[in-house]
Description:
Blueprint: E1 8-12, H1 17-28, E2 32-37, H2 40-52, E3 56-61, H3 67-81, E4 86-89, H4 104-132, E5 135-139, H5 152-171, E6 178-184, H6 190-193, H7 203-206, H8 218-228, E7 240-243
Helix pairs in contact: 1-2, 1-8, 3-4, 4-5
Amino acid sequence: xxxxxxxxxxxxxxxxxxxxxxxxxxxxxxxxxxxxxxxxxxxxxxxxxxxxxxxxxxxxxxxxxxxxxxxxxxxxxxxxxxxxxxxxxxxxxxxxxxxxxxxxxxxxxxxxxxxxxxxxxxxxxxxxxxxxxxxxxxxxxxxxxxxxxxxxxxxxxxxxxxxxxxxxxxxxxxxxxxxxxxxxxxxxxxxxxxxxxxxxxxxxxxxxxxxxxxxxxxxxxxxxxxxxxxxxxxxxxxxxxxxxxxxxxx
Length: 250
Ligand SMILES: NC(=O)c1ccc[n+]([C@@H]2O[C@H](COP(=O)([O-])OP(=O)(O)OC[C@H]3O[C@@H](n4cnc5c(N)ncnc54)[C@H](O)[C@@H]3O)[C@@H](O)[C@H]2O)c1
């Protein structure tokens, strides 16, 4: 018996990196997984990988930055599966730049995807998660827990995800639902592999958030997301769980 047998788990950002690993983790643990992403080809590949291992995964293409896409995804998931037990808000974007280079469009896009996307999905999912005594897991970042040079928009967005998690946890403190966040440090994913830093950066300012250990594999974060959403973590509510190899420890 898998930990998530008879459970329905919706994972955003499921086409790549941590979201992909999370979708496959839930699927391997018995869940009916719904993978949501804007990358249709990537989603198809993950669904194929799930099917090849005998697991169950369906896909929904959409943009977490568009409220209607988020609401419709939850609605369609519940229509098709009859319930929702886990929402993992993993989709996100990141880039680096000097403060002076932040544009209105870039700032709004960062907030629209990383903050609003997680919120609209949460807002739509919470009534169903309360019904199922389910779990909401947001993916934040070490960048939301520490001031990080050259990523002011990203750090702001992830700080918002952390306090959104706490605010939701408080508002639903008396309801049968658990709401937590996982805050990874560096993870070896397409996001970090494609990450461009400004040419003229001051490396002394970066040392603080590079840490001493190699980057995590996406599965190492996915395992913690699944644990937090499982009955083994039944006492966890409103927690921000770091998965960063000690980066934010000191
Ligand atoms: N990689 C890291 O080092 C790291 C560290 C800390 C936190 N995180 C966070 O983990 C999460 C996953 O990151 P990752 O490393 O797996 O990145 P990734 O780029 O490999 O995957 C992100 C996924 O989100 C999807 N996505 C992006 N914008 C979207 C949108 N508007 N609508 C729908 N889907 C969208 C992408 O298509 C992609 O499949 C993000 O929230 C990121 O901020 C990553």
